């Protein structure tokens, strides 16, 4: 089985959007700019490293960049069995599966980034990566510091991130080296993310999460907080709120995916950091990192090589003989027609909505039972839009 994984803050790179200019998936950048009220294209193409370090810029740029890659992958007909995202990437995963609409995803990422930025100013903190030391000993190092420092990310075996006050992180770093850490690296971030220092941001984000109302999904997303797969929308508001001040259990999430039968891990977005973590965590994992349009051919070859028959396997849809599914002809925002309701007669070729600028026409005749896609939802190519009863 295949999992799509999405990177978090820190994976952004200056100019990461330039290869995508002119690609069909660039339309997401324009849509995100309209929702965010910012020039996202300028962030992706023109911002320098210092500008992208700002949490408010890094999160929005990484989120949109990853969704661009996802959109391009979906145009190839590639779909995952699971999704997961590291920190910010969890919002990308939820948008990818439809738990969050595209507009809601953009608004939530903007609200989250602003809240975390302000929390970082209110309680200055830092983060550091501890390499070559097991999880338990890193936790011991934090406890020995007797200060405001905690484990923030369990990334992979021998790779743990700590965060807290500058003096707390420094003290814990000394203890970690005494316990056998090979190296401790300070990270270029503007706050102690995923620790109690983010409590103020957590409180601010709750209101935005309540408005978003995440939906149930067919593709489960593995949560950072509990390393468990979730497909119920009503669980995500509390999980995303808790994520801000709880450690990211990424290693545990990868093991959850492995236990579920996932062998293939495709990282969609800038950086490639998660690919290395998957290799270190999951035995015999097949991995690929996709960040540019040039990587798409490699992705298709990689998927083809990994399929049991040696060919790419695409999902089809069928119900009972008297029922038919109308699927999306492309990826984009779905808008329904207001003149159709449940029980409406549908002829072959009837337009039942639009995805981006393409018409969604029914290839079947029958009675419209219900729309499966939600108005203004971002859908993938071949995602079910509506179902009909033909007799």
Considering the chains and any ligands shown, give keywords for the structure.
38% helix; 22% strand; alpha/beta; 391 residues; 13 helices
Descriptive overview:
- This protein is an alpha/beta fold.
- Helix content is 38%, strand content 22%.
- It has 13 helices and 19 strands.
- The strands form four sheets. Strands 8-7-2-1-10-11 form a six-stranded mixed beta sheet, sandwiched between helices.
- Helix 1 packs antiparallel against helix 4.
Strand and helix map with partners:
Layout (H helix, E strand, L loop, with lengths): L1 E5 L20 H10 L3 H6 L3 H5 L1 H21 L6 E4 L3 H9 L4 H21 L3 E6 L3 H11 L3 E8 L2 E6 L1 H13 L4 E5 L11 H14 L8 E2 L6 E2 L5 H8 L4 E2 H10 L4 E5 L4 H9 L4 E5 L4 H12 L16 E5 L4 E5 L8 E2 L4 E5 L2 E4 L4 E6 L6 E2 L4 E6 L2
Parallel strand pairs: 1-2, 1-10, 2-7, 4-9, 10-11
Antiparallel strand pairs: 3-5, 3-6, 4-5, 7-8, 12-19, 13-15, 13-18, 14-17, 15-16, 17-19
Helix pairs in contact: 1-4, 1-6, 4-5, 4-6, 5-6, 6-9, 7-8, 9-10
Care to give the gist of this entry?
With 391 residues, this protein is of the alpha/beta class.
């Amino acid at each position: 089985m295949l999992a799509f994984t999405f990177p978090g803050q820190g994976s952004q790179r200056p100019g990461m959007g330039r290869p995508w200019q002119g690609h069909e998936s660039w339309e997401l950048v324009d849509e995100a700019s309209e929702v965010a009220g910012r020039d996202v294209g300028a962030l992706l193409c023109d911002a320098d490293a210092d500008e992208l370090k700002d949490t408010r810029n890094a999160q929005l740029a990484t989120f949109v960049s990853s969704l661009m890659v996802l959109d391009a992958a979906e145009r190839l007909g590639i779909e995952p069995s699971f999704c997961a995202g590291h920190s910010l990437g969890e919002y990308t995963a939820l948008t990818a599966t439809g738990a969050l609409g595209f507009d809601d995803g953009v608004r939530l990422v903007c609200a989250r980034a602003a809240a975390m930025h302000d929390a970082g100013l209110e309680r200055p903190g830092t983060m550091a990566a501890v390499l070559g030391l097991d999880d338990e000993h890193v936790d011991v190092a934090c406890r020995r510091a007797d200060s405001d420092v905690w484990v923030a990310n369990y990334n992979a075996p021998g790779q743990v991130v700590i965060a807290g006050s500058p003096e707390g992180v420094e003290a814990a770093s000394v203890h970690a080296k005494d316990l056998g850490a090979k190296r401790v690296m300070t990270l270029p971030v503007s706050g102690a993310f995923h620790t109690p220092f983010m409590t103020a941001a957590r409180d601010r984000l709750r209101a935005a999460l309540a408005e978003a109302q995440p939906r149930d999904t067919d593709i489960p997303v593995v949560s950072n907080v509990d390393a468990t797969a979730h497909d119920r929308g009503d669980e995500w508001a509390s999980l995303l709120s808790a994520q801000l001040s709880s450690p990211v259990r990424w290693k545990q999430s990868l093991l959850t995916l492995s236990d579920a039968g996932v062998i293939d891990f495709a990282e969609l977005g800038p950086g490639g950091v998660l690919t290395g973590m998957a290799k270190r965590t999951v035995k015999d994992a097949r991995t690929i990192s996709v960040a540019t349009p040039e990587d798409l051919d490699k992705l298709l070859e990689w998927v083809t090589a990994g399929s049991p028959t040696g060919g790419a396997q695409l999902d089809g849809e069928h119900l009972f003989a008297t029922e038919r599914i109308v699927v999306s002809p492309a990826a984009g925002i779905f808008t329904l027609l207001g003149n159709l309701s449940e029980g409406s007669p549908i002829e072959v070729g009837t337009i039942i909505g639009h995805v981006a600028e393409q018409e969604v026409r029914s290839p079947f005749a029958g009675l419209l039972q219900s729309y499966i896609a939600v108005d203004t939802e971002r859908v993938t190519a071949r995602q079910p839009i509506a179902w009909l009863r033909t007799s």
